[in-house]
Amino acid sequence: MSETVQDATGARVSVELDEEASAFVVTVDTGAVAGRAHYLTGPGPGAEAGSGPEWIMYHTEVGEEFAGRGLAKILVSHALKDSSDRGIRVVPVCPLFAKRLKEHGNDFLAIGGRFRWATEADVEFVKHHV
After folding, report:
1. Which residues are within 8 A (CB) of 87 and not within 5 positions of it... i.e. 6 or more apart?
2. Distance of CA 101 to CAs 46, 77, 104, 114, 117, Å?
3. Three-class DSSP category at 73
4. How far, in Å, CA of 123 to CA of 108, rounded?
5. 89 backbone dihedrals φ, ψ, rounded to 5°
6. Which helix (H) or strand (E) holds 36?
7. pLDDT of residue 32
């Protein structure tokens, strides 16, 4: 899924899922990659019946030259919407995702999104797979 939106300066940016790199990528109108929101496909909460797939969102980065344009917020919003559309549960290890879900978790749930708070096991999973 690819989407074109405007950043805080009014410039057009595109966000798309790069499944091969396990990241959402934001590209500015010049074609330059401005940032990424990285994820790992998680092992799920174990024996929980019907738990389904998970994305452990562990790191979001935007190049310094693109600071102040709201690109990290665009990445997080797009990743959450896409995960909801795909029926994938989000596990926010990245502080930006955790903050967004603390502030707007009920809104995310209202659109059919699913998430669970990260555990120490999730953090260890990221450490061993990145």
Report:
1. 52, 53, 112, 114
2. 23, 10, 5, 10, 9
3. helix
4. 23
5. -75, 140
6. strand 33-41
7. 95
- The length of the chain is 130
Burial environment of residue 112 by CB neighbours within 10 A (0 to 12, 13 to 18, 19 or more)? exposed
For residue 78, give the nearest of 92, 97, 65 by alpha carbon. 97
pLDDT of residue 87: 93
From CA 111, how far away is CA 50, in angstroms rounded?
Answer: 19
Q: Cα(29)–Cα(49) distance, rounded to whole angstroms?
A: 44
Contact partners, residue 98, CB within 8 Å, separation at least 6:
92, 117, 118
pLDDT of residue 3: 82
